[in-house]
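Need tokens for this chain, all 192 residues.
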Amino acid sequence: MLIVKDCIISEDIAEKRFCCDLAKCKGECCIEGDCGAPLEESEIPILERIMPEVEPYMTPEGIKVVREEGVAAEDNAGEPCTPLINNRECAYICYGDDGMALCAIEKAYRDGKIDWKKPVSCHLYPVRVDVFGEFTAVNYHKWDICQCAVAKGKECGEPLYKYLKEPFVRRFGQEWYDELVEQAEAWNERNK
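Here are the structure tokens for all 192 residues:
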């Protein structure tokens, strides 16, 4: 394991190769699963604020769910998460012309309608962050639907910690990320 500040980080973050291949998976991670994407408490007011700009990008079913249930739901452990349509796809989903599942929040962001990209847990995926009192666990979430991303990551040689630089910096800061890079490179050198 790697340790950066108060974070215990799985060595998978240093070792695994990963690069999303949306052309193959079609955004399946926004459709499958047993609950919505984790939300931080601080993200709920942001979602409430940006909803008027995000709604035009959402499906009618997603809009209905958010209007009836609110911008956040609770997962199986009672933690905040994105609401789901029919216990399946994320309420913030939209679809491209090719049938690819996209994030309505990110689409609004890319179009300059809002100043917030998307929930940090979505931005960090396939990494999951769990806070346990005084320490934070940072783990790779292995999921069969991401096999094409693993294959593409191996092909291009992109380690997970480099692939996720932007969301890691967003969540933990540049100093934390620089220390992660240093430790990940040392880990990989020791374990060649």
